Amino acid sequence: MNPRAYERLDERQLGEVLPEVRVIRAFALDTQRHLAWRGRYLRCLTLPDRWASWCLGAIPVALREIRRHRISVIFTTFPIATAVLIGWVLHRLTGKPWVVDFRDSMTEEGYPRDRLTWRVWRWIERQAIEHASLFIFTAPAARQMYLNRYPRLEPQRCLVIPNGYDEPDFQHLMRSQPTAVPESRPLRLVHSGLVYPEERDPRAFFSALSQLKSAGSISAATLQIDLRAPGSESYHSQLLKDFDIEDLVRLLPPLPYSQSLQDDAAADGLLLLQAAWCNHQIPAKAYEYLRVGRPILALTPQEGDTAGLLQEVGGGTIIDLSNVEAIVQRLPGSLECVRQGQHPLPDPEKVQRYDRRKQAQQLAASLEGLLPQRPKVQVQDVYPASKPEVTPTGRIGSKKRSSKGCTASTDGSISIPLDDGGLD
Q1: Dihedral through CA 158, CA 350, CA 191, CA 270, nearest 10?
Q2: Where are the beta strands (DSSP E) in 107-195?
Q3: What is the mean pLDDT of residues 8-26?
Q4: Measured distance CA(195)–CA(206) in Å, rounded
Q5: pTM attached to this predicted model
Q6: Are 138 and 212 in the same domain?
Q7: Would strands 414-417 and 377-380 be described as parallel, antiparallel, or unpaired?
């Protein structure tokens, strides 16, 4: 999209885009900001989302690029629903194979909350399921959700590629092996990124902290929790005040990505929040946490995919985010393990499975499978007894046959013998 369509821009990672990758900024507007009059706008201009006008710019530009550069595959990524709609239109107009990177689920019962928006998104989702060649999900449960929802959907069309991590992002980090934390300073836990009021509802966690503080089990002298760029600052500030834990929990501003990773690496432990209704999702930060190699306090249900990842790789204490009593009972012991340097750490060999270079190879292999298969021409260093000629039947042959002449294999490849003069 054109940069004006975004409320905020952070171009610090644009340098990671390879020079040979063409980035085209097609026309797009944000309905709420550009098409409103005195704060009001037509509802139809926000369907499927605020960037519906992107269709007007992206479709003609993409058609031109597909034809000019003979593009073989159309690839669209959610969570912008308009992107999926654009992909469907391009597929219908060109017949090119279409890959939909759903990542997480596009729709669920009750999501999106607005009923009309839900109906439009579900219609787009159905078109994708009917017409796309391949679907990508970031967690096994999300894939299974779609297989259950659409019984005619073939499992081989559904690929799980986890969020993973980029290894070069971690090469610069200054890390030390976790050791015992001296009693002279508080233990520091860090949560990086948004704390959604629903998907990562922190109220049960804050309530448990409040109870532990009242009981004297924790204090500002023993525990410091930093929520880095949590969003909804006014809402969270009020919660901290209501639970009387403003001295335990700090709301910190965002950092550039590389500095944020360094902040994670310097923490004594890392905090992960994921509510039950996100059991089919695994946040991207989970893989970053694992790569950083610090103890992880994961407040998430045991049956979710996030917990499954930590159980596979190790390094996490898992407690249900909604269970205040369980947090009160288990948190002090987990914090003491971290302080003593005895908390388990992620297994580095298992963490390496989620290096995005490996995942890129998996994606590339899947995309190759969508391309039309062409007969392969195998050139063999074979010299027949005489120069080959084209017979009246159109078949390549030779006046004097040799067992080393042209052959066709069962895979459709053709072996062409060479001589010093080539074919007539």
Answers
A1: 160
A2: 134-137, 158-160, 187-192
A3: 85
A4: 13
A5: 0.82
A6: no
A7: parallel
pLDDT digits over 298-350, tens only? 999 999 999 999 999 999 999 999 999 999 999 999 999 999 999 999 999 99
What is the identity of the amino acid at 42? L
Strand partners, 388: 398
| Residue in 70, 57, 59 with CA at minimum distance from that of residue 2 | 57
Same structural domain for residues 342 and 214?
yes
Same domain, 261 and 302: yes
- H helix intervals, 39-99: 54-69, 81-94
Which residues contact residue 300 at a Cβ distance below 8 angstroms, ignoring those fewer than 6 apart?
272, 273, 274, 275, 306, 307, 318, 320, 321
Using CA atoms in the order 36, 38, 40, 44, what is the torsion angle rounded to 10 degrees? -30
Same domain assignment for residues 126 and 219:
no
Instruction: Report the pLDDT averaged over residues 179-199.
Output: 93
Q: Which domain holds residue 254?
A: 169-346
Query: 380 near 418, Cβ under 8 Å?
Result: yes
Give the DSSP letter of residue 180.
P
Please say if the pLDDT value at position 11 is more than 50: yes
Query: Which secondary structure element, helix H or strand E, spans residue 126, and what is its range?
Result: helix 115-131
Question: CB within 8 A of 314, min separation 6: which ones?
Answer: 344, 345, 346, 347, 350
Q: Which of 40-49, 212-221, 411-420 has the highest mean pLDDT?
A: 212-221
Determine how many CB atoms are found less than 10 A away from the CB of residue 256. Answer: 11
Q: What is the dihedral of CA 166, 172, 174, 178, to 10 degrees?
A: 20
φ, ψ dihedrals at 100, nearest 5°: -110, 115
